[in-house]
């Protein structure tokens, strides 16, 4: 396990390096002069030069990159062009909101997905199975921004049960996490069903049935345990896609998270904020992948540690 | 890309066709195409999917003939009119006919799907094949680049690229292509690795073929079916991603009748005129659903692993 951990952490180094390099280069590859961009459209050439030297934008790129990483490690990701305050303040305030939404959506997607997967595997080939298959095909075909609008139209506009946008009470969580979680239900249900069907055909399950154990015990205690192993990886991967999907969902529901901040910052050309949001989302994803890899090794002792 | 893989496909066809068998079993499907067709039909939903997709393609081609109104013409006397005989899908906030805009938008969706996935394949497939074929340090370096690109969750990589290039439909499509590229690179690498072990590749090398000939005339045709199945899946995802970007204001700009962009403006009138958002949304769902159903049949027909079952 220790060798695996070390090896896995070593693999992270080039990835984190690459991600930070891309994020750093963002501000340098956009058309136009970064110093001019920071100084603002009305700045005089002298002002631009002052900005350039004070921020070190006249130094060679590798030096600038090292200083960017050095500052980032101490929690300094620059000042927002828009507010003039450190970007980490705003990021910190919103990061939790994105994470909370992601976790609620994930919990919903996993629980419902598992339940649906189990039911369809047990009644495979029957009408329940086919109906669910049809619905899940529809589920993955609806773009999240449209799903969000449909849910708003139904539950907020027509039925007036739930608030339209914003964040405050638990009711605000319902529609965004449904929007984010429904595609996950389809994915997790499919993978659970496929694995459970395979496990249910194995000899030890037949033995369990033959010795007269009730069906629920066979399925839930014997078969499900082994069927769950690949699901763990998928749940980890899906959490990553939730982070990406959060950008769209947060925009639809005006959710004060990092995703919406990112889109707002792109349109107001607030590049330090864009850099910081992208960096946070990507690093969170890398971390989640690491955790799900470790969990995968923990739940399945059969996996060889190479 | 599509030109040369298609050129080589028949070559591989001929060699793999078991001729004597075809004579013995007259009842069995004879040509490879027929065999693939019967595999395709095993997926019950593939044919409806194909019909939906073909209808959308025809609508996109015939949009100028079919559209009852000019998709860009404002008519401030007829703003946000609900569906009627004159405007079957109603009009939007500038009085433009939504049906006409959806028909023209179908063209944009086709372009989004084909251009993004085509570009992703042109770059990604040689990338992955080269990594697997050369191996060693080249493989490690190339795959680390892919790992970095995959470290951005979901559409985030596409958003990063658009924020650099600037918001426009063509940039959104390039962004979707770059976001899709790693998937093809990984798939091509994996398939090439397994084909590379085959004795006939060794034979190719023994008779002194050049590496590029082995790669493009002997390995590529053998991994092509796996790549096509993935391409079919990715076209629907590319359409979803490109329209998501347009919805976020990072893709097609007004007055373009792109479906995601139409939904974004429709959202503002949700309370008074829900039809402005509902029709473009329904169009996306229907097209993507058709593509997903079709993809299931293509997997049955083209994926060798599925054929064995």
Describe this structure in words.
- Helices cover 78% and strands 0% of the residues of chain A.
- Chain A is mainly α.
- In chain A, helix 7 (144-158) packs across helix 8 (171-200).
- Chain A is flat, with a radius of gyration of 24 Å.
- Chain A starts with a helix and ends in a 7-residue tail after the last helix.
- Chain B has helices at 2-16, 19-24, 32-42, 46-61, 63-66, 98-134, 136-150, 156-165, 169-196, 199-206, 211-247, 259-268, 275-302, 304-308.
- Chain B contains 14 helices and no strands.
- The relative contact order of chain B is 0.15.
- In chain B, helix 3 (32-42) crosses helix 13, helix 7 runs antiparallel to helix 9 and helix 9 (169-196) packs antiparallel against helix 11 (211-247).
- The chains are: A mainly alpha (306), B mainly alpha (309).
- The A-B interface holds A 11, 14-15, 18-19, 22-23, 26, 29-31, 137-138, 140-146, 149-150, 152-153, 157, 240-245, 247-248, 251-252, 262-263, 266-267, 274, 278, 281-282, 284-286 and B 45, 144-145, 147-148, 151-156, 159-160, 162-164, 166-167, 236, 240, 243-244, 247-250, 260, 263-264, 266-267, 270-271, 274, 277-278, 281, 284-285, 288-289, 292-293.
């Amino acid at each position: 396990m220790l060798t695996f951990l070390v090896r896995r952490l070593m693999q992270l180094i080039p990835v984190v390096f690459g991600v930070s390099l891309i994020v750093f280069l963002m501000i340098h590859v956009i058309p136009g002069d970064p110093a001019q961009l920071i100084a603002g459209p009305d700045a005089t050439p002298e002002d631009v030069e002052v900005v350039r030297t004070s921020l070190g934008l006249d130094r060679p790129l590798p030096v600038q990159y090292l200083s960017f990483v050095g500052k980032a490690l101490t929690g300094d990701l620059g000042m927002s062009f828009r507010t003039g305050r450190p970007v980490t303040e705003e990021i910190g305030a919103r990061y939790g909101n994105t994470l909370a939404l992601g976790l609620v959506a994930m919990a919903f997607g996993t629980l419902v997905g598992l339940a649906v997967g189990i039911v369809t595997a047990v009644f495979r080939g029957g009408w329940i199975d086919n109906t669910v298959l049809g619905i899940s095909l529809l589920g993955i075909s609806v773009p999240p921004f449209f799903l969000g609008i449909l849910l708003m139209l139904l539950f907020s506009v027509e039925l007036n049960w739930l608030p339209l946008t914003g964040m405050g009470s638990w009711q605000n969580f319902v529609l965004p996490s449904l929007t984010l979680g429904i595609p996950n239900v389809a994915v997790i249900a499919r993978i659970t069903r496929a694995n459970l069907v395979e496990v249910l055909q194995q000899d030890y399950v037949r033995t369990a049935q033959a010795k007269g154990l009730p069906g629920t015990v066979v399925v839930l205690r014997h078969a499900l345990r082994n069927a769950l192993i690949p699901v763990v990886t998928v749940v980890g991967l899906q959490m990553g896609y939730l982070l990406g999907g959060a950008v769209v969902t947060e925009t639809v529901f005006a959710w004060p998270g990092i995703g919406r901040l990112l889109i707002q910052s792109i349109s107001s050309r607030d590049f330090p904020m864009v850099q910081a949001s992208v960096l946070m989302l990507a690093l969170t994803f890398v971390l989640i992948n690491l955790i799900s890899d470790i969990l995968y090794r923990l739940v399945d002792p059969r996996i060889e540690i190479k | 890309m599509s030109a040369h893989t298609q050129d080589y496909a028949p070559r591989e066809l001929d060699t793999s066709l078991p001729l004597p068998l075809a004579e013995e079993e007259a009842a069995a499907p004879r040509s490879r195409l027929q065999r693939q067709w019967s595999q395709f039909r095993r997926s019950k939903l593939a044919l409806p999917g194909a019909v939906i997709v073909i209808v959308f393609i025809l609508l996109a081609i015939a949009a100028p003939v079919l559209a009852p109104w000019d998709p860009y013409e404002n008519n401030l006397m007829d703003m946000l009119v609900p569906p009627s005989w004159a405007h079957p899908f109603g009009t939007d906030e500038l009085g433009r006919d939504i049906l006409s805009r959806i028909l023209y938008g179908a063209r944009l969706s086709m372009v989004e799907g084909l251009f993004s996935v085509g570009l992703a394949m042109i770059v990604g497939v040689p990338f992955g094949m080269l990594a697997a074929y050369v191996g060693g340090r080249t493989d490690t370096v190339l795959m680390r680049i892919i790992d970095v690109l995959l470290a951005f969750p979901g559409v985030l990589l596409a958003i990063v690229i658009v924020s650099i290039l600037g918001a426009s439909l063509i940039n959104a499509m390039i962004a979707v292509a770059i976001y899709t590229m790693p998937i093809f690179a990984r798939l091509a690498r994996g398939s090439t690795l397994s084909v590379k072990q085959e004795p006939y590749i060794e034979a190719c090398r023994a008779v002194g073929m050049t590496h590029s000939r082995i790669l493009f005339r002997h390995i590529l045709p053998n991994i092509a079916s796996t790549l096509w199945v993935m391409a079919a899946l990715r076209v629907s995802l590319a359409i979803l991603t490109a329209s998501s970007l347009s919805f976020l204001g990072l893709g097609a700009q007004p007055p373009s009748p792109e479906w995601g962009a139409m939904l974004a403006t429709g959202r503002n009138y949700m309370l008074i005129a829900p039809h402005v958002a509902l029709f473009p949304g329904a169009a996306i769902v229907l097209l993507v659903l058709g593509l997903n159903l079709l993809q299931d049949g293509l997997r049955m027909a083209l994926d060798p692993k599925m054929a064995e079952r």
